[in-house]
Amino acid sequence: MITQLAQLADILQLAPLSAAVGALEWAQVSTDSRKIAPQSLFVALVGEHFDGHDHLAQAREKGAVAALVSRPVADPLPQLVVPDTLQALADWASWQRQHWQGPMIGVTGNNGKTTVKELLGAILRLHYGDVLVTAGNLNNHIGMPLTLIQLASHHQAAVIEMGANHLGEIDALAALARPDYGVITNVTGAHLGEFGSMDAIAEAKGELLAHLPPSGTAILNADDTYCRYWQAQSPCPVHTFGLSQGDWQAEALTLYPEGGASFTLSGPDGIQRQVQLQLSGRHNVSNALAAITGALSMGVPLETVIAGVAKVQPAAGRLQVAQGLMGITLIDDSYNANPGSTRAAIDLLALRPASSRWLLLADMKEMGPESEWFHREIGEYAAQQGIDHLLSYGPMARLAAETFGPGGEAYDTQDALLEAVIPRLDAQSVVLIKGSRSAHMEHLVTRLQS
């Protein structure tokens, strides 16, 4: 792992630095001057609405030791000047990947990729020990290079998440990461607005496959409509998973009202093992199957795989069950929303015994021309599942409240929604909170917990 300015100048093929400047070392790399930590290298990126070069002084004051810039800035902070800081970050990541030897698995898909990444991380840490795993959702053209430059000799394996909102993005990310194994979780309506069609989403996710080596393995969802399409593209062997079909399947599935799940893992040659999950919902069983199939493809023993998936707990804002005011049960799924994840959350709400079941729903963003249809369909689905009340926030979610029928109510503000719901709750009420990131539905979670 590169931690010295002279080394970075060398791999970026820049002119040699003075001894004093070249000897500068950092402990971490940051592109955000607001969050920079002492002993950091600050990378001054330039975007449509920001320019990191304007914040070198702030980075220096917070303890940055040097900066990677695309133009010199009048500041005492030592600077390494390159033609393009984003390209330099990618070149650095490419060099680091080229000089690291170890198994790497890449994960993409519309839904579940972050959960699958965490499941794989838990499994591989049990098997390998030190494993580099994408932090949070740093899965784009900035976040993934920031992950790859951390690759070091002590890492025995790596799990890299790849996200996209346009064609060609996964292609570029996979070319940089060059994974040995690749998982595609599914194609749903997420980001339909950017891609324009489900076929385009499937094409984008499939870009991962072209960068797998012949000796690698593609791990595909047999339940997904596009599985055969991807299978035909794969340059390497394919292993499949699914709730109802595939090499590795879930049988005797039980979803627990209080959260979690169990199932019998059924595999080739009659293999059967019992699996316990702390994660809730059928969709998370599918995510677990993806991680199980990926880890087994990497040669991890089955017993280690089963132990690893059992360790993973729900991440913040992803079907977290907690107690709220007056003793109500809160299901916090506020991290994000698309049709697939919203239906899965409704399924969990429907399982819970309650005096009343409430869905507090905000808009599902990036649905494109079909947005109205998706929101109306969610309203109908919630009613079919026996949900008692659907209270909406936002212009699109209002359509879900309309199609929900009796018990559907639309509000223009979160305050108005809370004023309407709180007096009608009791200790046996169960409340699901769901919406896209931009709706900030986590504020409702906080207020219903206080």
Detailed description of the structure:
With 450 residues, this protein is of the alpha/beta class. It folds into three domains: 5-83, MurE/MurF, N-terminal domain (Udp-n-acetylmuramoylalanyl-d-glutamate--2,6- Diaminopimelate Ligase, Chain: A, domain 1); 100-311, 3-Layer(aba) Sandwich (UDP-N-acetylmuramoyl-L-alanine:D-glutamate ligase); 320-449, Alpha-Beta Complex (Protein-Tyrosine Phosphatase, Chain A). It is 35% helix and 21% strand. It is built from 17 helices and 19 strands. The strands form three sheets. The chain has a nine-stranded mixed beta sheet, sandwiched between helices. Strands 14-15-19-16-17-18 form a six-stranded mixed beta sheet, sandwiched between helices. The protein has a four-stranded parallel beta sheet with strand order 1-2-3-4. Helix 5 crosses helix 11, helix 5 (113-128) crosses helix 12 and helix 11 runs antiparallel to helix 12 (302-311). The longest helix is centred in the first third of the chain and has 16 residues, at 113-128. The chain is globular and about 75 Å long. The model has no long low-confidence stretch (mean pLDDT 96). Pfam families: Mur_ligase, Mur_ligase_C, Mur_ligase_M. GO terms for molecular function: ATP binding; UDP-N-acetylmuramoyl-tripeptide-D-alanyl-D-alanine ligase activity; UDP-N-acetylmuramoylalanyl-D-glutamyl-2,6-diaminopimelate-D-alanyl-D-alanine ligase activity. Residues 107-293 form the Mur ligase central domain. One of its GO terms (cellular component) is cytoplasm. Residues 28-81 form the Mur ligase N-terminal catalytic domain.
